[in-house]
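User: Could you go from structure to sequence for me? I need the amino acid at each position, not a summary. Structure tokens:
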């Protein structure tokens, strides 16, 4: 089984370091309206050392990422949510001023 190399970057302000390598969660099916990335796939990624996941609302994988992190906590694969980094993107269809906050809240959910 492969184990992820833990190369990290940090800011000059002393913020927590973030893994350079992230597992991308975009899927072709996600773009066409179906969430197909199973939390099981993400759990396996956590088992081999992934701690950074890249997602976006348009990928329709944010829910699977959240479920996988919750399951990894339950299984003891990670000790706290703070061990995992999740990056997501505000898509251009939510960039109007009145849409930004609702889109961010939905991603955080």
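Assistant: Here is the amino acid at each position, in order:
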């Amino acid at each position: 089984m492969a184990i992820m190399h833990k190369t990290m970057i940090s800011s000059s302000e002393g913020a927590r370091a973030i893994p350079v390598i992230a597992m991308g969660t975009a899927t072709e099916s996600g773009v066409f309206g179906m969430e197909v990335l199973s939390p099981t796939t993400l759990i396996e990624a956590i088992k081999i050392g992934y701690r950074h996941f890249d997602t976006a609302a348009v990928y329709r994988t944010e829910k699977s990422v959240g479920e996988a992190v919750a399951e990894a906590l339950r299984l003891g694969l990670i000790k706290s949510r703070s061990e995992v980094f999740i990056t997501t993107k505000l898509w251009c269809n939510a960039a109007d001023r009145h849409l930004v906050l609702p889109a961010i809240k939905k991603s955080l959910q």
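One structural detail worth keeping in mind: Residues 8-108 form a domain with the TIM Barrel fold (CATH 3.20.20.100).
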